Amino acid sequence: MERTQLKNISISGSGTSSGGEYDQVKVNGSAHIHGDLVCEQFKCNGSAHLEGNITTDTAKINGSTHFEGDVEVKEMTINGSSDIDGHLLCDELKVQGSSTIKGNVKGKEIIVRGSASVDGNVSSDEIDVKGQVKIKGDCEAESFEARGNFKIDGLLNAGTIDVELLRHCEAKEIGGENITVKKTRDASGFKKLIKFFMSNHNDQLSAEVIEGDNLYLEHTHAEVVRGNTIEIGPGCDIKRIEYKTSLEIDSDAKVGSQEKI
């Protein structure tokens, strides 16, 4: 069946659209789109306000956007700022600017180099954070890697959790097969500069409960740490440890009680 040739929208200056189905949508000025939008490519170099939902293969945000509905996209890159009132469903999401999402986020690969704030839950195969992430719900992934700052009000659950502490990180509960938390050894000028401006923030992970098969923790404060093999490194303050196979505790760590179960 021959595919119907779709039209493009290109808005420069100030313009409005009623939404609909298009090939490419480009905003170089200020655009207000009324209704749902379906397109192959969405690119915003200016300011765009979409009242409905958007479904697109690629979205590139170099300016600012406000989506009142849900966003369904294969590849989304946010270099500017983007506010999403609904849910975000994506294959790949890269946030190099800032993004606020009021609903849930579901993807295959999520990369954060800027800042992202999510009111709902986040689930993805891979999550790579080298910026700042705030999640009010739960966060679930096959692999969770962080070299920046995160605050998760709910559960962080991943097969592999690899955290290099650069600033304060926090989750209510953490669960996984292999959990590694280390203080950064990187003494680059960039990281020194960040630490200078964030002098009130300690390089520390805080959680109520941390549970996994194999754990190595540094500079971690927790009520309970539970696992099979556990190594407690320097700077930790743990009230209670429950282990099955082995437990090692650094001399520069504080542990309230320990029990082999």
Q: Could you explain how this protein is built, in words?
A:
The protein is mainly beta and 261 residues long. It folds into two domains: 1-86, no CATH class; 104-260, no CATH class. Helices cover 3% and strands 68% of the residues. It has one helix and 23 strands. The chain has a 23-stranded parallel beta sheet that branches. Strand 19 (169-183), helix 1 (189-197) and strand 20 (205-217) form a beta-alpha-beta unit. It starts with 8 loop residues before the first strand and ends with a strand. The model has no long low-confidence stretch (mean pLDDT 93). Pfam families: Bactofilin. It comes from Fictibacillus phosphorivorans. Residues 1-22 are annotated as: Disordered.
Features of this protein?
single chain; 261 residues; mainly beta; 23-stranded parallel beta sheet; 23 strands
Shape verdict: elongated
Please tell me the total number of domains. 2
Tell me the distance between the termini: 65 Å
Number of helices: 1
Mean pLDDT: 93
- Biggest sheet layout: 23 strands, parallel
The run of helices and strands is EEEEEEEEEEEEEEEEEEEHEEEE
Structural class by SSE content: mainly beta
Number of strands: 23
**Unreliable stretches, pLDDT < 50, 5 or more residues?**
none
User: What percent of the residues sit in helical stretches (DSSP H or I)?
Assistant: under 10%
Give Rg in angstroms.
Answer: 22 Å
- Strand fraction equals over 45%
How do the helices and strands line up, and which of them pair or pack?
Blueprint: E1 9-11, E2 14-17, E3 20-27, E4 30-33, E5 37-44, E6 47-50, E7 54-61, E8 64-67, E9 71-78, E10 81-84, E11 88-95, E12 98-101, E13 105-112, E14 115-118, E15 122-129, E16 132-135, E17 139-146, E18 149-165, E19 169-183, H1 189-197, E20 205-217, E21 220-232, E22 237-249, E23 254-260
Parallel strand pairs: 1-3, 2-4, 3-5, 4-6, 5-7, 6-8, 7-9, 8-10, 9-11, 10-12, 11-13, 12-14, 13-15, 14-16, 15-17, 16-18, 17-18, 18-19, 19-20, 20-21, 21-22, 22-23
